[in-house]
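User: New here, any thoughts?
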Amino acid sequence: MKAKYSIIIPVYNEQEAIPLFYEAVLPVMDKLNEPYELIFVNDGSRDNTLNVLRELANKDDRVKVLSFSRNFGQQAAIFCGFEHSVGDAVIPIDVDLQDPVEVIPKMIEKWKEGYDIVHGKRTKRKGESFFKKATSAMYLKFIKNISGLDIPKNVGEFKLFDRKVVDVMVNMDEHDRYLRGLSSWVGFKQTEVEFVRNERSAGETKYSVKKLFKLAGRSVISLSTWPLSLSMKAGIVGGVLSVVAFITFIVLACCKIVLPLAAWLFPTITLLFSILFVFNGFTNIYLRRTYEEVQNRPRYIVAESLNFDKE
C-alpha cells in the first residue's frame, strides 16, 4: 500500500537517539490509521548508527534507510529523503525529539484543511543558550532583508509539505538548496503550528559553530545576489573617504601644516587595495559556485538502501 505520509529523518552519529525516536513516533503515526513510511537518511555516520537502522528496517518494513557514502550535510540528507519519498504529505524532522512528534497530527490536520506547507513554529526553545537564540534571530532578520523573502520566525526544518510542493523543490536544478528559504520562495498556501521545543533526548548537537556559519554562508549565496552589490558600495565608501582625506590634507596644507608624501599615499593606497580585495573576494565566491554548478556532481551518493522495494 502506498504511504500517505513520509517522515524524513536525517541522522548523523545518532545511535542513541534513533531507538528513542522510533518508540516515540510509532504510536503517534499508528493512531492516524493511515499508511506511512519512516525514511532515515544516514549522513555518513561514524558510530553504530547504520547497524541500528538496519535492525529497525529488518523488523519493520515501514522503516526505510538511505545511507550516504560520506557526510554530505543535513540539507542534502533532507532532499535525498524528499526524492525517495512517496507520501502525499512529507515531513522532515530531527531525530533528537527536540521537535515533538506529537505535533505531526496537528500539522496533518492543517494540511487536510487545504494548506500546502505547515511550518512548525517554536514558542519556546529549551536547552538553547541566549547566544544561539540571539544570533539565530539576527541571522533570520539579515536573510529576510537581503532576500526579500518572508521567512517565518522561530521555524526550522520541521515542516509538512504537500507532494506537489516537494516535487517543485526537488526539480530545482541547483546544488546549494536551503530548505527554509525555498519553502518561502515557492509560495503556495502556508500556515504555522506552534509548539514548545524540547531538549535533546540523547547525544549532543551535531551542528558546530563552523557548520552553522557554513550553512549561513550557503543560504546567503543561494537566496540573494546581495554580496554582488557590496563591490559598488565599497567603491562608493572608498571614494568618499579618499575625497575626505584629500580635502583634510589640503586644509592642513593651507594652514601651513606640511605632511610628508607618505601621508598622502598611504591611506589612498590602503583604500584602493581594500576595495580590490573586496571585489576579488566576492567574485571568487560566485566563481566557486559557478564552478560547482558546471561540475554537476551529485548532491549526495547513496551507498546502501533498505526496504525501498517493499511497497
The two ends are 6 Å apart (CA to CA). The CA atoms of residues 120 and 193 lie 5 Å apart. The beta strands are 5-11, 36-42, 63-68, 89-92, 117-125, 155-162, 190-197, 302-306. The chain has a mean pLDDT of 78.
